[in-house]
Design brief:
The chain is α/β, with parallel strands linked by helices. It has 21 helices and 23 strands. It has three domains: 136 residues, no CATH class; 113 residues, NAD(P)-binding Rossmann-like Domain (Rossmann fold), CATH 3.40.50; 270 residues, NAD(P)-binding Rossmann-like Domain (Rossmann fold, 3-Layer(aba) Sandwich). It is 44% helix and 15% strand. The strands form five sheets. It has a nine-stranded mixed β-sheet, with helices on both faces. Strands 3-4-2-1-5-6-7 form a seven-stranded mixed β-sheet, sandwiched between helices. A three-stranded parallel β-sheet has the order 15-21-20. Keywords: Membrane, Transmembrane, Transmembrane helix. Belongs to the polysaccharide synthase family.
């Protein structure tokens, strides 16, 4: 056996022009449908004669027979006519299913009775009474095997261009020989894109057995099987598999270029039958070493159930996910507050579709409001009109280079907008106000991070001095800080995905740049739970796990897409990683807390509380009031001086923080 390189397991295209059999196949496939049907009928008739002759030979035990070829042909023609009448020849060979043969079996039982009647009444020259059963049995075997053979050949040839072009189907290994794996195998049986070659399973009792002709191997030999059988994709057909187990499988295959896809969980599949359409790409979270815990349902519902809830920035990546999770927790009213008309329309239509498809959401009022978070009077009107009790403030400009080039727009929206939004909440007796913050607010080296830390300081000050705005205020204000979310508009993951799909080099700013990562649904889920734990003024910090090197993430995404990294060691690889240099204001790594000893644990294992310095509301208001004037003058020097005074650790234009 030829040993293959670890980087050559993806099925390589093969030239097939010039091969005689495949040239014949090309010619046959190009024939009109009725001609192909006539060929199949003729072949079956000839084989029926052969099967009848063989059954007589087996019955008599010698070659000399006393029945003419004409009589043999007449007997053999009867089942062929029967097959035609029941529509056996109207089906497409490439779509042949085993279930078709059950109909043939029923026909043959009828024909056995028919033959016995012919023999009994001596209609045709007599043949032994046992012969029809043996004859139809042999013919049945021929029909089944011939159609399976044709189907297999067509699966390999149909849809492929023969003359000098390439075969592009993939060899598939199904991980999991249980019910889901078997259903998936059935779903793939008619595919021209995939060819299942084997199963692997953890159960040693299944090792060596076969499912639908495909051998089951043990998972201990996974890497060898992938190499030996020239596997291009591994399909995980174990809906109940744990994330830890899934990560081990991915790690085992991490050094080879192979696509890995999975079935959804049992909960997502519900009562649906498994089909190839259910297959999806591996969640990138599965390749990150992140702890996850089941959400606390009581915390999720505390500030939402039977309440009026408003989300600012409702059309953004975090804001829209908050809306999706809020509606699941049965508010009486959900107000979507967004400046972008298109983003607002998109999330509104999505939520209306959810509402229409489920009786659980019928009583929820969903309202879309176009508005700016700096418009305090409009916010107050909205809060009062819809009796808003909970506000999730997700509206922000968050793209670091964009805000770096538009500093005043960023600060006015992120810092002053938060001030007006929180003030409006206090004045209208909103019960809970939660600011969505970022790890870039910690010792920032960019305007975006500094503007978000300033927003945190505003919320801290308003929480402690709310009485200066409304003496009897009971609004609980808190902040939730976390790192990058996978799949958001500012995340590298969708950028890398597009680059891989187009075959372009992946662009990474620096080989040592690291980031924390969390999925959007998990982040939104924890934001809601953290807000429910607040007493007032807390800065909650989500446990993001271990930071990940972006270059490692890029390499894993390339491998999971079935490609090979192109570098000095592998010059013939598929996709190159190009380092472009740190962008203005970008750090090598982000932090979640400002000090080393100012964080406390909470009742939730993934939510911590940071104890950080705050400023008086008067001092902050003085700066916020000057922003419009300084914006007109574009006095960036003044702005950055304010950052240096208020934002702990702010360091202007530093590209590497250490």
């Amino acid at each position: 056996m030829v040993e293959k390189s670890l980087y050559s397991v993806k099925r390589k295209p093969k030239l097939i022009g010039g091969n005689v059999l495949q040239s014949i196949a090309q010619y046959l496939l190009s024939l009109p449908r009725y001609v192909k049907r006539l060929i199949l009928i003729s072949a079956d008739f000839i084989m029926a004669i052969a099967c009848l002759f063989l059954s007589l030979l087996l019955r008599y035990g010698y070659i000399e027979l006393h029945i003419s070829l004409w009589t043999l042909s007449l007997y053999a023609l009867i089942p062929v006519i029967g097959l035609y009448l029941v529509g056996f020849y109207h089906g497409v060979s490439r779509g042949f299913l085993d279930t078709v043969m059950s109909g043939v079996l029923q026909l043959f039982f009828v024909l056995i009775v028919f033959y016995e009647l012919i023999i009994y009444f001596d209609v045709l020259p007599q043949i032994p009474r046992s012969t029809p059963i043996l004859f139809l049995f042999l013919l049945y075997i021929w029909l089944w095997n011939s159609r399976l053979t044709i189907k297999e050949l067509l699966k390999r040839w149909q849809g492929k261009r023969f003359e000098g072009e390439l075969i592009d189907y993939d060899n598939i290994l199904i991980y999991g020989a249980g019910e889901a794996g078997q259903e998936l195998m059935k779903g793939l049986s008619n595919s021209h894109k995939y060819s299942v070659v084997a199963f692997v399973d953890d159960d040693r009792q299944l090792t060596g057995a076969h499912i639908m002709g495909k051998k089951i191997y043990h998972t201990d030999n996974l890497l060898d099987i992938v190499n030996t059988l020239d596997i291009a994709q591994v399909f995980l057909a174990v809906p109940s598999i744990s994330r830890a187990r899934k990560r081990k499988i991915i790690e085992k295959l991490s050094h080879i270029s192979i696509k890995i896809k999975e079935l959804p969980s049992l909960k997502e599949l519900a009562d649906e039958k498994v089909t190839v359409s259910h297959m999806r790409k591996i969640d990138i979270l599965d390749v990150l070493d992140r702890q996850t815990v089941e959400p606390d349902e009581e915390l999720l519902k505390k500030n939402i159930a039977h309440k009026s809830v408003l989300v600012t920035g409702a059309g953004g990546s975090i804001g829209s996910e908050l809306c999706r999770q809020i509606i699941k927790n049965e508010p009486t009213c959900l107000v979507l507050y967004e400046l972008s008309e298109f983003a607002l329309y998109s999330i509104h239509q999505e939520l209306l579709a959810k509402q229409a498809s489920s009786n659980e959401y019928q009583d929820i009022q969903i309202v879309s409001i176009i508005g700016n978070v700096t418009d305090e009077h409009n916010l107050m009107r909205i809060f009062q009109t819809y009796h808003v009790q909970t506000v999730y403030h997700a509206a922000a400009y968050k793209h670091v280079p964009m805000v770096e080039h538009n500093p005043f727009q960023g600060v006015i929206n992120n810092s002053r907008g938060t001030y007006h939004c929180a003030r409006a909440a206090i004045q209208t007796d909103v019960e809970t106000f939660v600011l969505i913050s970022t790890d870039k607010a910690v010792r920032p080296t960019n305007v975006m991070g500094a503007s978000k830390r300033l927003a945190e300081l505003v919320c801290q000050a308003l929480s402690h001095e709310a009485a200066s705005i409304k003496p009897d205020s009971k609004t609980c204000i808190s902040m939730v800080r976390f790192g990058n979310v996978l799949g958001s508009s500012g995340s590298v993951v969708p950028v890398f995905t597009k680059q891989i799909e187009k075959g372009l080099p992946i662009t990474v700013t620096h080989p040592d740049v690291t980031r924390y990562f969390m999925t959007i649904p998990e982040a939104a889920n924890l934001v809601i739970q953290a807000g429910a734990m607040a007493q007032g003024g807390e800065v909650f910090v989500l446990n993001m796990g271990e930071p990940v090197k972006i270059v490692d993430l890029a390499q894993r995404m390339i491998h999971l897409s079935g490609h090979e990294v192109k570098d000095d060691k592998h010059p013939n690889g598929d996709i190159e990683i190009v380092f472009t240099g740190l962008r203005p204001g970008e750090k090598l790594y982000e932090e979640l807390i400002i000090g080393d000893d100012n964080v406390e644990e909470t009742a939730h294992p993934l939510i911590m509380q940071a104890m950080e310095h705050r400023f008086s509301l008067t001092d902050l208001e003085r700066v916020l009031e000057k922003l419009p004037e300084k914006s007109q003058l574009y006095d960036v020097v003044w702005l950055k001086l304010q950052f240096k005074h208020f934002v702990d650790g702010y360091k202007e234009d530093t590209t590497v923080h250490s």
